[in-house]
């Protein structure tokens, strides 16, 4: 049984950061926490570093969910809601038996970001090392009004502004359940959507991140405010997930498999 984590209450956004350690023997150990489908998807990645990062990211998610749900990481059952745009089985992920706890995960480089709330939530993180050329290409996917705003900025400010705009856009799309599968058009009015709150997140240097939290996740939250909250009603609690805790949680799984 994983050590329980503080309960996520209405009006709270719990954010966890994992710095993925260098690849090594721990990769195979952590993979024992994944379900067969996750292991198969990871195995299809040709680059060992990408495979290692994916395994650690998903193993970390299972450790966190197990701590919140009172079970073992390998017993967490992950599902997908239907996509609200097309009805396909690729909407927001959720854990069976989550009792209203929702989550989102994003990773970039060796950084992984997890978010938990009592309602729909989306999160995104990007590395600040993105090139100006890549930024220009991806910015082309944004609505025309946002592109014009970015283009009007001086070159030194443009990349930072793009990253902030992009993580908020993708967090919102993940929150509403469409992701990037249907383009970014649905995020055109994200900043003015009264049903959602966009929050810039404090993450380690070299990364930019944001979360989108549905208004119903704030139910019964009261009117108290918290530092760093964009809505004045959302309390953001940030913690670090030690990579050693993932390996520690995976050890019982290795013992049960007799290896």
Into how many domains do the coordinates divide? 1
- Uncertain regions spanning at least 5 consecutive residues: 222-231
The CATH homologous superfamily is named 4'-phosphopantetheinyl transferase domain
Which class of secondary structure composition applies to the elements?
Answer: alpha+beta
Describe the structure.
- The chain has 259 residues and is of the alpha+beta class.
- It has one domain: 4'-phosphopantetheinyl transferase domain (Ribosomal Protein L22, Chain A).
- The protein is built from 7 helices and 9 strands; from the N terminus they run βαααβββββαααβββα.
- The strands form 3 sheets. It has a 4-stranded mixed sheet with strand order 4-5-1-9, covered by helices on one side. Strands 6-8-7 form a 3-stranded antiparallel sheet.
- It is globular and about 55 Å long.
- The two termini are 19 Å apart.
- The relative contact order is 0.20.
- About 4% of the residues have low confidence.
List keywords for this structure.
259 residues, alpha+beta, Ribosomal Protein L22, Chain A, four-stranded mixed β-sheet, 7 helices, 21% strand
What is the structure about, briefly put?
The chain is an alpha+beta fold and 259 residues long. The protein has helices spanning 26-31, 36-43, 48-69, 132-139, 144-151, 155-176, 243-256, and strands spanning 12-19, 78-80, 93-95, 102-108, 111-117, 121-127, 196-201, 207-214, 235-240.
